Model the fold of this input.
Amino acid sequence: MTKNIFLLIGPTASGKSNISLQLTKDFPFEVVNADLYSIYKEMNIGTAKPNLDEFSSRYHLFNKLDPDMNYNVSEYCLDAVDSIEKVFANDKYPLITGGSMMYIYQLLNGLSHDYNILDSDKKIISYILDKYTYTEIYESLINGREISNGKINRNDKYRIEKLLERLISPNNDKKKHKGLYFNKNISITIIFINICDRELLRQNIFKRTCHMLETGLIDEVENLKQKYNLTLENQSMKAIGYKQVLSYIDNNAELDNLVNSISLATQQLAKRQLTWRNKFKVDYYHNYPELDYKSLHDFISKSLA
Done:
């Protein structure tokens, strides 16, 4: 069997989950998750995670981590490649689906840095992050000249943490991910959901936000917070929806403000996701809201012929 890999990518709330489910019914596909926050267990409502009970054998890289754990792009690339090999071993085709565009881009094109971290180093990093504030860590790195002033913003917690990882964790014998494009035995087909009616997408984002809250998002976040002792510093709680709800719980804010803040943040995310469109070698545009499934079905059939 030719090693064909398909990607179904696009902005949030554009129908990727429903389309991927239908595709697994019509083609020998198994889904490899490319949404960072769907990798976490028990984060279901806010990630719009598909119901995996009936089709669990067709899905990979969902519910892998506890919500108090960190995860990085290097780990994702290694896990995704492992999942892809498992799909091929099942005589199926991988369908990589999600909206974490940077992770997808690095999976395809390779990593410029080695982010592999030993477990012992992770414990050291966790200790530093618990003992010191990000401002104190930033000042220490500036004074030690590990970073030059202005290169990283003192409020950029993500980049400060990643710099810590690179400084503390030595290079080990794991190879850097070179990117799927560098594997000559693989054929890659990218399907991108393009947005023709952004106003309709905004309306659907608002409706989806209301639905998430009506179906228990606040309770989900409250339970996660209590079970795992989560704060806004945890990577999982940086997810849109979870971040706002956690702030709502901690600050006892107004519910109407919560709906609007989640909707606005989701709209901004969709806009950022669309800017990645030109960075991918797109083979087929699936237009939202038309979503002509027959045309998509015919395209994939010809690609597999």
